[in-house]
Design goal:
The complex is a heterodimer of chains A (652) and B (140).
Chain A: H1 6-13, H2 17-83, H3 86-117, H4 120-136, H5 142-166, H6 175-209, H7 213-243, H8 246-274, H9 281-284, H10 288-291, H11 293-374, H12 388-444, H13 455-485, E1 494-496, H14 498-516, E2 519-524, E3 532-534, H15 536-552, E4 558-565, E5 571-578, H16 600-605, H17 612-622, E6 626-632, E7 636-644
Parallel strand pairs in A: 2-4
Antiparallel strand pairs in A: 1-3, 4-5, 5-7, 6-7
Chain B: E1 10-14, H1 18-30, E2 34-38, H2 41-50, E3 55-59, H3 67-75, H4 80-83, E4 86-92, H5 98-105, E5 109-113, H6 120-139
Parallel strand pairs in B: 1-2, 1-3, 3-4, 4-5
Classes of the chains: A alpha+beta (652), B alpha/beta (140).
Chain lengths: 652, 140
């Protein structure tokens, strides 16, 4: 498991939390944004697609009216002319006028939707043709008229199909809308033209020339076709109703009415017209309605108008279906957009909360760490959350408390040890001082009435004295260090003049250097401060220790002390340079440690406890200063004490 | 009349450590001085109420009553011969700057513990001579 996630862990381990969140946001957000954009584009396309369909339906409505009135006009004109019937002539001029109105209506929708549906040029051509025909049609010969009717009818049907195509109506994949569309765009206009063919043929026959054999064949054929169309209509609607049962209630009765009306027209036509043998003119006059050209024309015209009315109703239904679909798209888009927004805002809100919670716990841990480092073990870590990080914090707290307890007990035992050492050293020193005192008296022959000592006795006393002094130095160093480690060191700050008290300190060591035959020089640089606020006893003790070492390890040359200003204006320095044996590089890091000398051989050759430098360092630190060393073997060492010019006693 | 000759000195020695007292006593006696020893500041003060000394060597660190306290008590006696005494502090671990403190407190000088038998007399003599010089300057 971990193995599989190793690269992920590697990356996350190198990022800050803010960066982690950004990375996650990128990985989650980018696909999210792409998907959202895809969805949005798709929805907009859907809306665009279906909106075009709506425009198509609106466009087709007046176009269908053109087809209707043009069919009537073309059929009626020759009959009205031939019969010279004033009623028919008046109706013809009404139809001519209606053509003009219908053209204007299509112009209006074309101005609005023609460009979107890309049909404007085709409409312009068609319109010009119809306009031209209105002028030339009344003077045409019969055959020419028939050809013109066919041609224009086909052109109108093609134009309607074109609008159906460019408005996506024909492409629509839904079953209900498909069959509605098929009815509105294809079947009903087609059916109207077939009905018109019947009309035109019959009234041609009734208006004089009689019913010829080819007329009978034509009528039978068209009747057959229309009956098939009606069946196909019904079937299509059945599919649509099955797919969308709500439609049955809306259009079921209308469909039945439509089918019944057309069937009734066809039946009547068959009975009244085809029921007679060709050539029996007299028989044709028997029915008022169907027997005359004018009567049949009106019956056919009403049927055709009913077909167009039905078409308009279905077109309205189609419009409602598609309109509802478009509204659905808008709702879907709004819903998805809202859900995304409602999801993203809490995600961002909680992500920020997550980060702040992590940040808070880490800050708490930092605070706890700082408190622990400063030694405050009262309250370490209090969790403000209940998550995994809080567990880390509590674990840290536990470790911290245990470490603190361990440290406290270690400090306590160190204190006890130091206290014991201090007492012990004092107890050792007092009798030793007496031994040295009495030895000195004996050596000086200060005993009144005492006999002169033999040289051997003198030498033995000398040895007692030497060993006693060595022991005393050791004890003194131990006492000093014990005091420092026991925390019993108290810094007493006074105004001190380095030129004065350092001169005294160096002078006290002069005899030691003189005895070894080496130089001991004290030099004050121009930058040396005249007055400092410090504990001069401790400064003096540090210098004494450094001088003691320097003199001890120097056989020729000398020890040179320089007092000067420090690296910053707030500091001053005391430098002790000797020309002694120096300190090897690998030892230099350890010389300030307790009980350290450079090596065992040094210990033999150069007596001492090795505590001197540890004391110097402890004192320097107690006074907010430091001590540093540079050294080269066989060339000498340089120790530099750096101290503040104004020691603030409150901070010690 | 006080001189720089130890044989003329009448010395009071106060130290709680008997061996330290003995060493100082032997060195001073050997030099010819007259030495009276006391092992506490209280008993020394009792004695000082009765008589005066030329010099007094007072150990600073003593239980109950320290050398400083004793010095203060002597200076407070308002007897000219008492307050005129040369007072020398005996102090352990004397460092630079101690001298100033001792002088400021009212001592004429100090000697450091442990006592260096070979140099102690010259140190005391130096303090006495300084005192005499100072007094002479003041008298002139």
């Amino acid at each position: 498991m971990r193995r599989f996630f190793r690269p992920s862990i590697w990356v996350m381990g190198r990022l800050k939390y803010l960066q982690k969140f950004l990375l996650l946001a990128v990985f989650l957000g980018v696909p999210f944004a792409v998907l959202r954009n895809e969805f949005r584009t798709k929805t907009l396309e859907d809306i665009d697609f279906s909106t075009k369909e709506l425009y198509g339906i609106l466009y087709l409505e007046p176009t269908a009216q053109i087809l209707r009135v043009t069919l009537h006009y073309l059929t009626l004109t020759p009959v009205a002319n031939q019969l010279d019937d004033p009623t028919l002539l008046e109706e013809r001029s009404t139809l001519d006028q209606q053509i003009g109105e219908a053209l204007a209506a299509v112009d209006a929708v074309d101005a609005q939707y023609g460009a979107i549906l890309q049909v404007t040029p085709h409409w312009a051509d068609l319109r010009a043709e119809i306009e031209a025909l209105r002028q030339t049609y009344p003077q045409m010969q019969t055959r020419q008229r028939n050809d013109t009717i066919d041609a224009l009818t086909q052109r109108l049907l093609r134009f309607i199909t074109r609008v159906g195509n460019t408005s996506n109506l024909i492409l629509d994949p839904d079953i209900d809308t498909y069959y509605y569309m098929d009815t509105v765009v294809t079947q009903l206009p087609q059916m109207a033209t077939y009905l018109n063919e019947i009309n035109s043929t019959v009234i041609g026959a009734l208006s004089g020339r009689g019913l010829r054999l080819q007329d009978t064949t034509l009528l039978v054929t068209y009747e057959e076709i229309i009956i098939n169309q009606l069946a196909s209509n019904q079937q299509g609607f059945e599919f649509a109703f099955e797919y969308n049962p709500a439609l049955r209630e809306d259009k079921g009765l209308l469909l039945t009415g439509h089918v019944g009306r057309v069937q009734s027209f066809l039946l009547t036509t068959s009975r009244e017209i085809l029921g007679r043998a060709p050539g029996f003119r007299a028989e044709l006059d028997r029915s008022e309605d169907y027997g005359t050209a004018a009567g049949f024309y009106r019956a056919a015209r009403n049927t055709i108008d009913a077909v167009f009315a039905f078409r308009s109703t279905v077109a309205d239904g189609l419009y409602d279906l598609i309109d509802a679909r478009v509204n659905g798209y808008y709702q879907r888009q709004f819903l998805v957009g809202s859900v995304l927004l409602l999801g993203v805002i809490p995600a961002i809100y909680f992500a920020i909360g997550f980060y702040l919670s992590v940040r808070g716990t880490i800050d708490d841990l930092n605070t706890a760490t700082n408190r622990m480092v400063k030694g405050d073990n009262a309250v370490a870590f209090e969790p403000h959350t209940q998550d995994e990080l809080a567990e880390v914090g509590l674990a840290f707290d536990k470790i911290g408390r245990e470490l603190m307890a361990a440290r406290d007990s270690a400090l306590e035992s160190a204190r006890a040890k130091s206290s014991f050492l201090a007492t012990m050293s004092h107890e050792l020193r007092t009798p030793l001082n007496a031994i040295l005192g009495f030895t000195g008296i004996l050596m000086s022959g200060m005993v009144k009435g005492g006999a002169q000592l033999a040289p051997t006795q003198q030498e033995l006393l000398q040895r007692i004295d030497t060993n006693g002094r060595r022991l005393r130095d050791v004890i003194n160093d131990i006492l000093d260090l014990a005091k420092i480690e026991a925390g019993r060191i108290t810094v007493t700050v006074t105004e001190a003049r380095p030129r004065q008290f350092l001169d005294e300190t160096v002078s006290a060591m002069r005899s030691l250097a003189l005895n070894k035959g080496i130089a001991l020089e004290l030099h004050f640089a121009v930058s040396a401060p005249e007055v400092v606020l410090t504990d001069m006893r401790k400064v003096s003790q540090m210098l004494t220790n450094l001088l003691g070492n320097a003199i001890k390890f120097t056989q020729k040359g000398g020890v040179y002390v320089e007092v000067r200003g420090g690296a910053t204006p707030a500091d001053w320095q005391i430098e002790v340079r000797d020309t002694g044996i120096g300190i090897p590089k690998d030892s230099i890091g350890r010389i300030f440690e307790t009980f350290r000398q450079v090596d065992e051989s040094d210990r033999r050759e150069y007596e001492g406890t090795g505590l001197g430098l540890a004391i110097v360092r402890s004192l320097a630190e107690a006074m907010q200063g430091s001590v540093a060393v540079v050294s080269e073997v066989n060339h000498g060492s340089t120790f530099t004490i750096t101290l503040p010019k104004r020691l603030d006693v409150k901070e010690v | 009349m006080l001189t720089s000759n130890p044989e003329d000195w009448d010395i009071l020695l106060v130290d709680d450590e008997p061996d330290n007292l003995a060493v100082l006593e032997m060195v001073l006696t050997y030099s010819g001085a007259t030495v009276t020893s006391r092992r506490s500041a209280q008993t020394a003060l009792e004695l000082l109420k009765q008589r005066s000394f030329d010099l007094a060597l007072l150990d600073i660190r003593m239980p109950m009553m320290s050398g400083y306290d004793l010095l203060k008590a002597i200076r407070d006696m308002h007897a000219p011969e008492r307050s005129d005494m040369i007072l020398i502090a005996i102090t352990a671990h004397a460092m630079a700057g101690d001298r100033e403190r001792m002088i400021a407190a009212g001592f004429n000088g100090y000697i450091s513990k442990p006592v260096e038998v070979s140099t102690i007399m010259s140190t005391i003599r130096q303090i006495v001579e300084d005192y005499l010089d100072q007094r002479n300057v003041m008298m002139e």
